[in-house]
Fold this protein.
Amino acid sequence: MTAPICPQCEPENPAARYRDTCLIHGERSVWDEVQQERERAHAKHGKTSMEALPDTDLTRLTVLMEEVGEVAREFNEARHRAHQMGWATADAFGPAERASLRDELIQVAAMAGAWANALTATERPS
Ligand SMILES: [Mg+2]
């Protein structure tokens, strides 16, 4: 017997997930963490946070790119560790490094989501 497919995924889609392990709609989805990160960042940065800037302010891009850069830093540090140890880069990602990479990706998603939400909130009729 096969596990039930996630009811929110299209069953014809080859990427459809099983209900209990669906990473898009299941309990392991990252969206709650993304929202919490938005709230944490806004509490930390206040008037200069991604939540507070005008929707097309170029500062938004610098905030987002800073977070993307921190993802790149995780890989660059892994590359150096791997080189020192004679490993493949992927082998330099232990549990702590994978957690750090995941944290940075959540921050990227939070900043991109905040920006997209700002544009949605200020949509103008065409
Ligand atoms: Mg970061």
Q: What stands out?
A: The chain is about 55% helix and 0% strand. Residues 59-85 form the longest helix (27 residues). Residues 67, 70, 104, 107 surround magnesium ion (CB under 6 Å).
